[in-house]
């Protein structure tokens, strides 16, 4: 005990005022009252907010909402579990998981079929997490079930999921509400804390991952809290490098008696056991307070992880607002008054740097509407670390990130779900650095790979690639042309252009085009423009976006745009008549000679029967020979445009 006290005093942060948060209303059509996920869903570098089956995406013009469906959902988990660069979504419905994915070309959330995630039916889905259960590099889904036992859906090669609960999970009874995964014993495997609410007495569970299955060790580790537990958060509150467990509890009537609702803070004793120090540390809270969820983050960037807890009254009782506990070096003080959180009451809570200023914001609701609680910031330094797994899962979920600065080392883990049905931290590690200006970063990957990056300057976000070190993603970039909702005619080149994406190395761009009917087209180029072959397009509405790739990381354009393609019949045009044309042979078989009664330079275009441009040539000195061997037989039109006007003439291609 003396060692811990001395450590706390040695690294005690300077006294400062509480962080202040300002409520900013999110779009009302973002489904409110649900557990949020704070994550960059579209890959443009800006953090978005998902709530249930809806997503509010940040754009240059403000928030833009996409809604998957109108079915009930309680929470949502997000990750690129397929490894293709586009993030998938597990919408946690009441009784089934509804998988979806972000369509980058269309800029929308869409259903994802054939994964097997939607097959099992649950009693009531509660706290759940994405994790790489067996460290095979593919993310799995552990579903907390209020009723029958929890369910592990393991991902197989090809992106389908199988229910392996019977062979892997301990087979405990249901009643799961909260869930959070972390490697508390530092053996490289993810262990899972499970909060139970009913039936009482319901002792919380701790799943310890072994070589082939989980073992329930709540009693032996002394984390088997018998109170009604909902939200759970792993954090290294005392800075000793070992993750501790915070549990948000609430009172429940049992046989006419009200149970103790004080919170728990289980300090990791580094020997496989824990001690509840919530009272001594200052985060137990009133025994009658309804604490539903919690999130751990360094809100003031002083280098010590704080706690925010979502409270809400039951029935018509007195108000029970959120609590903000500031970590002062292994001890907490309640800094809720004056923070701007004293009037917020919700079941759910999420955290992440939504506005990109380096200060962790909060997401909840007010008056049944989703709300962003923007952190007022300060002068302390910070660092954000994003990961790109190669042997490990793409997102680096389960990786341990150690940030050393000023004689201390802070620990974070990349998580795929936390609190109560929420997902915070935008799949990155955020660390406050206080007054330090540089840091050394060590990443311990699920695969066993260890990467070290030294001398990292503060106040930025970096990306570390597994086995390769730092490799930041290409910078944000905008689309240029065609404009949004433009109409492209078959008689003009279908050229798409965009601003360059800055990167230290070469960048390849993928132009993504998708018809509303589902036909998808992809083109690759190293240039910042591309002309799509006319034969590839057909009448109707399309959407397009661009993805920049530096070989390891990707960045999606700041928006997706819509356009329509219109076939224009050359015969309908009425331009000024141009010089006479002579074609031969007609019918043609492999080549066609075109003579123009004007020696001036001109542009020659061949249009097919649908008016689509299939060939373009320059005419010099009034003559050109066209190679038609790549075209199918049929009726065509030659169109010649020069300064003197436009001329057309039909021909037939035969074989």
Number of helices: 4
Span between termini: 91 Å
Question: Could you tell me the strand content as a percent range?
Answer: over 45%
Q: What would you call the shape?
A: elongated
Number of self-contained structural domains:
4
| Biggest sheet overview | 6 strands, mixed
Indicate the CATH architecture of the largest domain.
7 Propeller
SS-based structural class? mainly beta
Helical residues, percent: under 10%
Radius of gyration: 30 Å
Please outline the helices and strands:
Elements: H1 2-10, E1 21-25, E2 36-39, E3 48-51, E4 54-59, E5 62-67, E6 75-79, E7 88-92, E8 97-103, E9 108-111, E10 125-131, E11 140-145, E12 151-155, E13 161-163, H2 165-168, E14 176-182, E15 191-196, E16 205-209, E17 214-216, H3 218-221, E18 228-235, E19 244-250, E20 253-254, E21 257-258, E22 264-268, E23 274-276, H4 278-281, E24 291-297, E25 306-311, E26 323-327, E27 332-334, E28 350-352, E29 361-366, E30 369-375, E31 381-388, E32 400-405, E33 408-413, E34 428-434, E35 438-444, E36 450-457, E37 460-465, E38 469-470, E39 479-481, E40 486-489, E41 494-498, E42 508-515, E43 520-525, E44 529-532, E45 540-549, E46 554-556, E47 561-566, E48 581-584, E49 591-596, E50 602-607, E51 613-619, E52 623-627, E53 634-642, E54 645-653
Parallel strand pairs: 31-37, 40-47
Antiparallel strand pairs: 1-30, 2-3, 3-4, 4-5, 6-7, 7-8, 8-9, 10-11, 11-12, 12-13, 14-15, 15-16, 16-17, 18-19, 19-22, 20-21, 22-23, 24-25, 25-26, 26-27, 28-29, 29-30, 31-34, 32-33, 32-35, 35-36, 37-38, 39-41, 41-44, 42-43, 42-45, 45-46, 45-47, 48-49, 49-52, 50-51, 50-53, 53-54
Organism: Rubricoccus marinus
Keywords: Signal
Protein name: ASPIC/UnbV domain-containing protein
């Amino acid at each position: 005990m003396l060692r811990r006290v001395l450590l706390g005093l040695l690294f005690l942060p300077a006294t400062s005022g509480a962080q202040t948060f300002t409520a900013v209303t999110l779009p009302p059509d973002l489904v409110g009252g649900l557990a949020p996920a704070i994550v960059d869903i579209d890959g443009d570098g800006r953090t978005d907010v998902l709530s249930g089956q809806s997503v509010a995406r940040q754009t240059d013009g403000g928030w833009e909402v996409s809604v998957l469906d109108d079915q009930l959902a309680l929470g949502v988990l997000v990750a690129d579990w397929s490894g293709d660069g586009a993030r998938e979504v597990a919408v946690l419905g009441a009784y089934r998981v509804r998988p979806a994915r972000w369509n980058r070309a269309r800029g929308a959330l869409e259903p994802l079929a054939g994964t097997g995630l939607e097959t099992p039916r649950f009693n009531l889905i509660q706290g759940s997490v994405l994790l790489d259960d067996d460290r095979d590099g593919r993310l799995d889904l552990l579903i907390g079930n209020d009723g029958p036992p929890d369910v592990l859906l393991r991902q197989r090669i090809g992106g389908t999921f199988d229910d392996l609960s019977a062979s892997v999970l301990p087979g405990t009874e249901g009643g799961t509400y909260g869930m959070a995964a972390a490697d508390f014993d530092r053996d490289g495997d993810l262990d899972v804390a499970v909060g139970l609410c009913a039936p009482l007495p319901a002792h919380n569970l701790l799943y310890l991952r072994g070589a082939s299955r989980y073992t329930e060790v709540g009693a032996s580790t002394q984390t088997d809290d018998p109170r009604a537990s909902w939200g759970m958060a792993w954090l290294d509150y005392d800075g000793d490098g070992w993750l501790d467990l915070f549990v948000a509890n609430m009172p429940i009537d049992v046989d006419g008696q009200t149970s103790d609702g004080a919170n728990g803070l289980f300090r990791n004793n580094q020997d496989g056991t824990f001690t509840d120090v919530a009272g001594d540390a200052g985060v137990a809270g009133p025994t009658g307070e309804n604490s539903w969820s919690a999130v751990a983050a360094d809100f003031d960037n002083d280098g010590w992880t704080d706690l925010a807890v979502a409270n809400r009254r039951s029935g018509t009782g007195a108000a029970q607002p959120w609590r903000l506990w500031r970590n002062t070096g292994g001890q907490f003080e309640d800094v809720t008054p004056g923070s701007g959180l004293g009037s917020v009451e919700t079941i759910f809570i999420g955290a992440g740097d939504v506005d990109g200023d380096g200060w962790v914001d909060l997401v909840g609701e007010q008056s049944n509407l989703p709300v962003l609680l923007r952190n007022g910031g300060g002068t302390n330094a910070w660092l954000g670390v994003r990961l790109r797994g190669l042997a490990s899962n793409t997102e680096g979920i389960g990786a341990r990130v150690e940030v050393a600065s000023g004689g201390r080392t802070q620990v974070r883990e990349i998580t795929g779900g936390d609190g109560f049905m929420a997902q915070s931290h935008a799949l990155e590690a955020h660390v406050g650095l206080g007054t330090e200006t540089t840091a050394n970063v060590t990443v311990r990957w699920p695969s066993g790979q260890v990467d070290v990056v030294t001398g990292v300057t503060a106040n930025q976000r970096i990306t570390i690639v597994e086995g390769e070190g730092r490799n930041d993603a290409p910078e944000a970039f905008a689309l240029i042309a065609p404009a949004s909702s433009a109409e492209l005619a078959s008689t003009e080149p279908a050229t798409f252009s965009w601003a360059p994406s800055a990167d230290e190395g070469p960048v390849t761009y993928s132009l993504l085009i998708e018809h509303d009917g589902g036909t998808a087209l992809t083109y690759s180029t190293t240039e910042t423009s591309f002309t799509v072959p006319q034969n590839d397009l057909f009448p109707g509405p399309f959407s397009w976006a661009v993805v920049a790739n530096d070989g390891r990381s990707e960045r999606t354009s700041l928006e997706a745009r819509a356009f329509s393609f219109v076939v224009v019949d050359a015969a309908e045009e009425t331009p000024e008549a141009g010089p006479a044309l002579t074609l031969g042979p007609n019918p043609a078989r492999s080549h066609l000679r075109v003579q123009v009664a004007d020696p001036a330079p001109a542009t020659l275009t061949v249009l097919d029967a649908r008016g689509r441009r299939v060939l373009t040539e320059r005419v010099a000195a009034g003559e050109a020979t066209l190679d038609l061997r790549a075209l199918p037989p049929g009726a065509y039109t030659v169109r010649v445009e020069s300064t003197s006007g436009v001329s057309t003439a039909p021909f037939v291609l035969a074989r």
